[in-house]
């Protein structure tokens, strides 16, 4: 079961901004870096953000990450139809010694 | 950099299957590795994690005692031995490489499908 909580869905018009929240606990987000993954329909997940705020090469700066305490957030600005996907946060849980994913958020571009 | 899974298929409940993940394009023995699965229409579920040298392994409670993660650094290959399979193990299984000295998954395979059904 997921121990990181995300909203099931968010939506906005093209060009607008969305923010996806990820809520955890002291043993996971409170102690470790968060990563964000994008999963387009029918494809494997792809790393979007790592170490809370860093973007891998090739990921546009429209995507940004933040973390404070036991919560994290992914922001997407200048929303495009190609951003329609499921987004997951993830981190290591130091008490359980497992990797935990968020419940996932579906982004819809209206 | 590439990860390619194989070994999926249809198996009866109680049966076994071994998945493989062939890696290329990086120094395999320097990186920790994960298995992650996704049941039909569901979210991502982490399965198992192994250190770069194979000396430590970690498992989700849902598979502990039934699945075994291992690696052969001489063959650049990751494995997942799955025993006592259940219907709820039906999923697409992905292997993933970690970032340097990190837990995050920076390279993913396309996945292999496991179906447990009589």
Task: Give the helices and strands, then pairings.
The complex is a heterodimer of chains A (110) and B (118).
Chain A: E1 9-12, E2 18-23, E3 35-39, E4 46-49, E5 63-68, E6 71-76, E7 85-93, E8 98-101, E9 105-109
Parallel strand pairs in A: 1-9
Antiparallel strand pairs in A: 2-6, 3-4, 3-7, 5-6, 7-8, 7-9
Chain B: E1 2-6, E2 9-11, E3 17-24, E4 33-38, E5 44-50, E6 57-59, E7 67-72, E8 77-82, E9 91-98, E10 105-108, E11 112-116
Give the helix proportion of chain A (percent range).
under 10%
Mean pLDDT of chain A: 96
- Strand tally of chain A, please? 9
What is the alpha-carbon Rg of chain B in Å?
13 Å
Range of strand content of chain A:
35-45%
Order of helices and strands of chain B: EEEEEEEEEEE
Give a quick precis of the structure.
The complex is a heterodimer of chains A (110) and B (118). With 110 residues, chain A is mainly β. Chain A has strands at residues 9-12, 18-23, 35-39, 46-49, 63-68, 71-76, 85-93, 98-101, 105-109.
Entry keywords:
heterodimer; A: 110 residues; mainly beta; three-stranded antiparallel β-sheet; 0% helix; B: 118 residues; seven-stranded mixed β-sheet; four-stranded antiparallel β-sheet; globular
Fold and architecture overview:
- Chain A is an all-beta fold.
- In chain A, 0% of the residues lie in helices and 45% in strands.
- Chain A has no helices and nine strands.
- In chain A, strands 1, 3, 4, 7, 8 and 9 form a six-stranded mixed sheet that branches.
- In chain A, strand 5 and strand 6 form a beta hairpin.
- Chain A is globular.
- The mean pLDDT of chain A is 96.
- Chain B has 118 residues and is mainly β.
- Helices cover 0% and strands 52% of the residues of chain B.
- Chain B has no helices and eleven strands.
- In chain B, strands 2, 4, 5, 6, 9, 10 and 11 form a seven-stranded mixed sheet that branches. A four-stranded antiparallel sheet of chain B has the order 1-3-8-7, with no helix packed on it.
- The radius of gyration of chain B is 13 Å and the shape is globular.
- The relative contact order of chain B is 0.31.
